[in-house]
Amino acid sequence: MGRLYDATWGRAFSAFYDRAFAATEEAGLRRMRRGLLAGARGRVLELGAGTGANLELYPPAVERLTLVEPDPHMSRQLRAKLAEASREAEVIEAPGERLPCGDASFDTVVVTLVLCTVPDPAAALAEITRVLAPGGQLLFLEHVRAEDAGLARWQDRLEKPWRFLGDGCHCNRDTVAAIAASGLRIDQLERERLPKAPAIVKPLVSGSATLPT
Length: 213
Hints:
Rossmann fold, about 40% helix, alpha/beta, about 210 residues
């Protein structure tokens, strides 16, 4: 019964995802996405592409775009959006912890509001480092564990109910530490706030990390 309920909620969550985030996108999130993706170059892999919020924001420096999305309901919407888009891309339905991609096959990997949700972020980051070419970059935009101790305690208290409502989203993950522990070198890091969002998911980071040569 639990698995059926989860599947039903996942289908509903994907159906209203774009509408639920519309105000947040308009209030600044889309601007943040565009600024981050301006640095994408070469062969690009987007992990957890969702319904395609980043699709039209990639710059001309992108030579080839591959979109990975594990959720079948999200990937269905992603393919529909791609069919009407001006950009070409390949869609792969696979988990971030097991990417069906060759070693050192991408120059840029992109994650936006993704590492909060993957079941095993350390395994996903290990896959990211595997598929990145030496000197390749990870571009990230993620909500994270708060630096403020009081807010962090609330994130811990509300993590379980939020994870249900957010279809697997963990509001208290220290994603910056996880990226640093993966072997990637963090080159740029900016702390921002997710607009029009509950307090427990407002702390936001954006930046880039490089795979050492």
